[in-house]
Design a protein that fits this description.
about 425 residues, alpha/beta, Rossmann fold, 2 domains, 7-stranded parallel β-sheet
């Protein structure tokens, strides 16, 4: 039986690092097992904020990869301020009161002149090239994945020109994403963003989202079919590691300025003061980009001597740090907009064998998944005593060499199981 050819358009692809690359890298890995031949279209010369060359090994030589040049405005922005352009491209936006004039100016330009995002110049030329490829390869199904949501505009053009079946995948929401409000968007620009979002949501044949909250949000805009396919975990190479001797509480990935759980830092500060053994064993480890205000909070609470700032590492190394640690932190901004966000690392956390301490808003998909799988505890930003109590409980288990998790129902979040769900839609 001939395999069904599917064109997948994505901005993020190895050697891109960070969470944005994982979803479709894994789908592409497993789709051939379900009689689907993926053809992947990516930028030839992207300006990826994070690089992880180890991910290249996960791309099979049998997969057709088509590359096309892109003009990256962040390279030009670097002339004004290299530091600001680099941090913005990583999604790091300073607190408003700490923003320089240059950063404010760059945010205004980004939000009002690059709609929906800084990769908009890739849309028209890519669509023109892909029309020929679609004809040549006899492709009748198209998938676009965002952010950047400008990738969906390529899908929109191809849909209009060729009438393909189009699946639009949203790893994150569009206009309701947390940082959207920080881009100093004018009312006119906001209308343009909303119009494009509405057009994509009502033109695609099938919408894919990563959370039930996003599905509920989009359902207010469109009647198109919406399927929830979360991110997940994959089988990882066997890593030689030894668990930390210290009581390590680790956060893996970017911990940006608004993700600053003061209740957690205060609880740890109190435990340090009250318990000499706890103070001797505590280690707070950050693996990834950390906002300066978070480091300031730790200094203010006399926790500076306890934190270990590793910085960005490869995906394989991040898995190692997860397994080495005693507790894993999952922190989300306390806002209505972040209820639909399920960080990709949650699923890797769940199979690490280490208890999760999650802090975020109420009624999130994250809270439901953690409870359903018995992999940790979710707390709100106004929780204090219960958070402190759980940390102490985990510490006592650590001292008795009994700190384990007993997860249930994880198999449905395996990348192969999720790809099977995707294949049914194709």
């Amino acid at each position: 039986m001939n395999k069904k050819k599917v064109l997948i358009i994505t901005y993020y692809w190895p050697p891109a690092g960070g969470p944005g690359v994982q979803r479709w890298l894994k789908f592409v890995k497993y789709l051939p097992e379900f009689n689907v031949e993926p053809i992947v279209f990516i930028p030839e010369n992207p300006n990826y904020p994070l690089i992880d060359n180890s991910l290249k090994s996960e791309v099979s030589d049998d997969i057709t990869i088509i590359k096309y040049p892109i003009k990256e405005p962040y390279r030009v922005a670097g002339i004004l301020s290299k530091k600001s352009s680099q941090t913005m491209s990583k999604g790091v936006i300073s607190e408003e009161k700490k923003q320089s004039f240059i950063e404010k100016f760059m945010l205004f330009i980004r939000g009002n002149f690059f709609i929906p995002d800084a990769r908009i110049s890739w849309v028209k030329p890519s669509a023109n090239v892909l029309l020929e490829i679609i004809e040549k390869e006899k492709i009748d199904t198209l998938i676009t994945t965002g952010p950047p949501h400008s990738v969906h505009l390529i899908g929109l053009r191809l849909k209009e020109k060729r009438g393909l079946r189009w699946l639009a995948d949203f790893r994150d929401p569009w206009t309701s994403i947390g940082y959207h409000k920080q881009l100093r968007i004018t009312k006119n620009a906001e209308r343009k963003h909303k119009k494009l979002e509405n057009c994509v949501l009502n033109s695609a044949d099938q919408l894919l989202v990563t959370s039930n909250n996003t599905k509920s949000e989009f359902r207010k805009i469109t009647n198109r079919p919406i399927e929830v396919i979360t991110n997940g975990y994959d089988d990882e190479p066997v890593i030689d590691f030894e668990k930390d001797k210290k009581f390590t509480i680790a956060h893996i990935g970017s911990l940006l300025s608004k993700r600053n759980p003061m209740n957690l830092w205060k609880a740890l500060s109190e435990l340090v003061k009250e318990n000499h053994e706890f103070a001797k064993d505590l280690q707070i480890r950050f693996v990834g980009v950390v906002g300066e205000n978070i480091l300031e909070s730790l200094r203010d609470l006399n926790l500076s001597d306890y934190f270990d700032d590793i910085g960005y590492v490869s995906h394989n190394q991040s898995i190692m740090y997860q397994k080495k640690s005693q507790l894993l932190l999952l922190i989300e901004i306390d806002s209505e907009e972040t209820k639909s966000i399920i960080p990709g690392k949650l699923f890797e956390y769940m199979v690490s064998g280490r208890p999760i301490i999650s802090i975020g808003p109420k009624d999130t998909d994250v809270e439901k998944i953690i409870k359903e799988t018995n992999t940790g505890n979710h707390f709100y930003y106004d929780d204090y005593e219960s958070l402190k109590s759980i940390i102490l409980e985990h510490y006592k288990a650590f001292k008795n060499d009994e700190l384990e998790t007993y997860p249930i129902g994880l198999q449905k979040y395996h990348r192969k199981s999720l790809t099977h769900s995707l294949s049914k839609l194709l």
